[in-house]
């Protein structure tokens, strides 16, 4: 049973739910980091005339980008979505008790 609880905790920590503002921030950071890694690795590889160095530097840039963008950091979850209430068939918000919903239907 303890193993099941540990697996559930691991699943929750790796799920990585982020909000829409966080998705935009991740996309911008990834784009900037990958372009920077590509330019730096090209310039250094060209200067040293080494394709191995170029690919190695770019690989490090990709790993660094993954380290920054994959975990659900607090900056990526700072703007949670506020959902509208569920509406019934008449367009009224659903109330937690059934009695209130039945009373609104009787009035119509």
UniProtKB/TrEMBL annotation:
Pfam families xrefs: SPC12
Domain of life of the source: Eukaryota
Major location category of this protein: endoplasmic reticulum
Membrane topology annotation: Multi-pass membrane protein
Keywords, comma-separated and alphabetical: Endoplasmic reticulum, Membrane, Transmembrane, Transmembrane helix
A GO CC term assigned to this protein in UniProt: signal peptidase complex
One Gene Ontology term from the biological process aspect of the record: signal peptide processing
Subcellular locations according to the entry: Endoplasmic reticulum membrane
Segments traversing the membrane: 33-51, 57-76
Protein function: Component of the signal peptidase complex (SPC) which catalyzes the cleavage of N-terminal signal sequences from nascent proteins as they are translocated into the lumen of the endoplasmic reticulum. Dispensable for SPC enzymatic activity.
Stated family: Belongs to the SPCS1 family.
Protein's name according to its UniProt entry: Signal peptidase complex subunit 1
The organism of origin for this protein: Rhodotorula mucilaginosa (Yeast)
